[in-house]
């Protein structure tokens, strides 16, 4: 990261309209994003997927960024390649770094069927074969890219490039089939998540990273993509299903060639131990999204006063390994109706965002759906007003030493003492999951005599910091307040 107090925004949500105009909206919004304090933008996957309505994770052609007539469309759900590059340029012109969403676990929408041998496996234990001998199946595994041809790459994918599929076209039988062949099979069980025995297989045609031709091709694609688009980093999808040895070399190779390149992985699992094991296997090549923290935000929002706030951060990457923690509240996968649904209750979102945006630890990510609202069967308005306030506080006030007060099941808080480089910096965050509360907290004796107010205006009145740098701060029922020095224009 090159920006002090940087903030990422995930600039899409699952249920966006498939109007092909989203990249135009990104371009038009670049200056506004800069003004509110966004320093990095994570764009949706732009590689051609199964069709114009595909959110981008049913990946078809890595080299088609909305340029070729394939899968019934030239554009992706979000727009054309030209518009993608224009959006990146607008963000760069606004001094915002850009991260691309990269999907390398599987491929979908093959152009031809092929016949080959495979083993049906137990879906609940993929290491367990359901037959001792392979059977012949027919599946969609041949990718010839007729709309693109050999432009940018002449590599064609066939069944030897994959480790598994989930459908036998010949019999109409659904299941999980591990493809048979020399040096084939799932990734080593220690290199992928251990759920279902071995969680290499997730969906569609699963890419085989034991195949050297595939590894070389994907490495070449990454270099082409970065050169073609000028992006500053990758958000890696579904890394717990991808061979960690491949991922380590993939990211290290990119970082060696591109100074300052950023990579963050989505490893959706709630226990820190699994995430830590992955970090060690990949030699900390990637940062990771703080899934354990997001799960606690969900629990806290759902349980209200029955949740013990003093343990809110206990299992988080934010606490246990803050330098690689990308903190978030919601994302596209956690939206209502999605497989990883983990939608944080509306009343608790301001509390959660106050934590990730005003903490000194972690790299916070604001979700488009929390800011602008979500569509779909469960539409919800965004909370841009309070997020703008918190983002401004992060820009102007969230500096200096931090003191934590996670010492009560219903009322917690923390302070930032400020520093000499940022006038008026320093703040006190206090939040409650039941009735209004008060908490005495230390902000530093350098603030002695200052008059502070609740910058979110949830609590009226003002207070004066004591000679020893303390004050008793208040918050309203089920709410958060952020106290900081009263501005001159507030007099």
Q: Find the structural class using helix and strand composition.
A: alpha/beta
Number of separate helices: 10
Fraction of helical residues = 10-25%
Which radius of gyration do the C-alpha atoms yield? 24 Å
What does the overall shape look like?
A: elongated
Measured between the Cα atoms of the first and last residue, the distance is 37 Å
Note the main sheet.
8 strands, parallel, barrel
Structural description of this entry:
There is one protein chain. The chain is α/β, with parallel strands linked by helices and 491 residues long. It has helices at residues 22-36, 81-93, 212-229, 244-257, 272-281, 291-303, 317-320, 349-358, 368-372, 384-396, and strands spanning 8-10, 40-43, 48-49, 59-61, 97-102, 106-107, 112-122, 125-129, 135-142, 162-168, 173-179, 205-207, 233-236, 262-265, 287-289, 325-328, 363-367, 402-405, 411-416, 427-432, 437-442, 451-454, 462-464, 470-475, 480-485. The strands form five sheets. It has an eight-stranded parallel beta barrel with strand order 1-2-5-13-14-15-16-17. Strands 6, 7, 8, 9, 10, 11 and 12 form a seven-stranded antiparallel sheet that branches. Strand 16 (325-328), helix 8 and strand 17 (363-367) form a beta-alpha-beta unit. Helix 3 (212-229) packs parallel to helix 4. The model has no long low-confidence stretch (mean pLDDT 96).
